[in-house]
Amino acid sequence: MNISTSVYRSIFLFAVAFVCITLFSSSSFLYPLNPWDDANVFMTIGKAMLSGELLYRDIFDHKGPVLFFIHELAAWVSYKSFLGIYLTEIICYWGFLWYSHKIMRLFSNSWIIMPFTCLIGVGVVTTDFFWFGDSVEELSLPVLSYTLYHMLSYLKTQTVPSVRTLILVGIGMGLVFWMKFTVVVFHFAALIALSVICYRKKNLQDLRQITLWIIAGFLFLSILCILYFISKGTLADLYNAYFYTNLFQYGGVAANGEPTAPWFFLVKLAIAAVMVLPIAFTKVRRDVRLLIVTCFGLQMLSFALMFVQIYYFLVLFAYAPLAIYFLRNVRATRTAKTVLLLVGILATATSYNFVTLVNGTFHRGIIPIARYVNKHKTNRHDVLTFSSYDTGIYLLTDVLPPNRFFFAPNATKPEIKAEQAECIRTRKPKFLVRKTERVQSLIQKYYDMPIPEEYTLVFHKKEQLRYYFLINPKMFLWNLGYTQGLMKGIVDENAEQQNLYLYERKY
User: Fold this and answer.
1) How far apart (Å, rounded) are the C-alpha atoms in residues 407 and 389?
2) How many CB atoms lie within 10 A of CB 297?
3) Which of 23, 85, 36, 18 is nearest to 355 (CA)?
4) Beta pairing, strands 455-463 & 498-505
């Protein structure tokens, strides 16, 4: 590949990433806000850190510190919007597409590689696994694709990657580990598979060099991270929040009421089959098959052993380029081009974020609440998210949480309920913002507390929840807007709804 061709492809894939994230991520400027609780938690913590608060000690979440460093930088870019995250998503998505394209070029020179890369780009951001955007899984995709590409390249060429490349793989492993340590199972699986392959081929020198520099990169980033918390005197807070909470207190789907039915595990198997079929059942080198099946198998095993949210599956799209094994002999016929185009159109037409944006029904109820708060607040800690998830109020206003546990996490912590009551008694926030759902999850019931009598309701907004295609196909189809006429009589459009409340202190 000459330089001009490489640059052209890079620019083109950057344009694809820009279009995909702009149209389908609700962090984009096209959307009024990203309504996802987790994304708002990340941004609230980023804003708090930018204002000098100490991560985990002064403000709490159980995700890894690298994620919050990213959101602190995003808050510096834009304090009251997701602009910084939107730009980060574009860069990450470009990296994912670039290395997906390079993975395919390892095994094929077919004309279909570039169109299929574009199709992967559209397919990932329009699936329900993408959620609203700004998930750890999304930000991890370029790291996984980078690692997979260099592992496959080594197996094909039998040339050990450069020291710089191996260190970067290790740093990427560290980035993933310090965002969400369960995702790093991919890297451990890759090293296990590589150890077996090198042992069989008696390439122990290659194995030593590869593992040494990857571990060096991982340790480099990890030591920097640990030194940061030592310098702040918050190393114990890091352990308690990130490791202890996730290992021993996190409730996952069992706590928040997301799918636990037996059929949900069939969805897992279906995803596994689609992703792994190209390698498992086509004529491919044994070492490549071993690497892919080991990585994919251990990731699926980790999903089976823990409670999962539906967006966890997004990391599996790192394997999507391997479908080139099925497509590399496709001829450039009009039929083939038409099929690719139709699949892309269908994916776009069933993207929840995009469809609700076009229909004008995207979540925006917190916006008038934020306007009221901005107009009547008296200090920077005047708002308490009461007994619920983060609503986005802290992003849209110039306020920060008055307490450490400013939202209800997926972990049952009695100290959170006690802190909320103490915050109302001592700091006397002027406003309470609350979000409830018609069907309360177990975690919501645990944190449910009555509104204190000194507060009165000043605003109430009812909205429809997003509907999950894999969880409730009927409700999903109703939400597409142009299918509502067909769905009347089949679906109760009020079956799922959320309520936003704003309470103001009377005395």
Assistant:
1) 5
2) 15
3) 23
4) antiparallel
Instruction: List the beta bridge partners of residue 437.
Output: 498
Q: Which residue has the tokens 């202890």?
A: 244
How many other C-beta atoms are found inside a 10 Å radius of the C-beta of residue 310?
A: 19
The interaxial angle of helices 65-77 and 136-157, nearest 10 deg, is 120
Q: What is the CA radius of gyration of the chain?
A: 24
- How far lies 170's CA from each of 11, 217, 272, in Å? 27, 4, 26
For residues 314 and 135, give the distance between their C-alpha atoms in angstroms, rounded to a whole number.
Answer: 9
Amino acid at site 333: T
> What tokens does 269 get?
């198997």
CA–CA dist 282, 104 (Å, integer): 15
411: tokens are: 């972990």
Helices (H), 78-184: 83-105, 113-126, 136-157, 163-177
Nearest 5°: CA angle at 116, between 110 and 118? 135
Q: Return the half-sphere exposure (C-beta side, CA atoms, 13 A cut-off) of residue 124.
A: 34
Nearest to 168 by CA among 207, 221, 227, 206: 221
Place of tokens 């690497």: 291
Residue among 201, 200, 224, 196 at smallest CA distance from 211: 196
- CA atoms of 215 and 208, how far apart (whole Å): 10
Amino acid at 50: L
Residues 167 and 165: their CA atoms lie apart, in Å, by 5
List of residues 6+ apart from 150 with CB closer than 8 A: 161, 165, 166, 169
Instruction: Find, among 105, 43, 144, the residue nearest to 406 by Cα.
Output: 43
For 246-300, what is each residue's pLDDT tens digit? 888 876 444 444 445 555 556 656 665 666 666 665 666 788 888 988 998 888 8
Query: In percent, how much of the chain has pLDDT > 70?
Result: 91
Q: HSE of 109 in the Cβ direction (CA atoms, 13 Å)?
A: 1
> Distance between CA 416 and CA 384 in Å, rounded?
13
Question: DSSP per residue over 384-433, as a string?
Answer: EE-SS---SHHHHSS---SSS--S--SB--HHHHHHHHHHHHHT--SEEE
Name the most confidently modeled range: 84-93, 278-287, 341-350, 481-490: 84-93
The vertex-343 CA angle with 341 and 346, nearest 5°, equals: 110
**Amino acid identity, position 226:** I
CA–chain centroid gap for 42, Å, is 11
Cβ 422 vs Cβ 402: under 8 Å = no
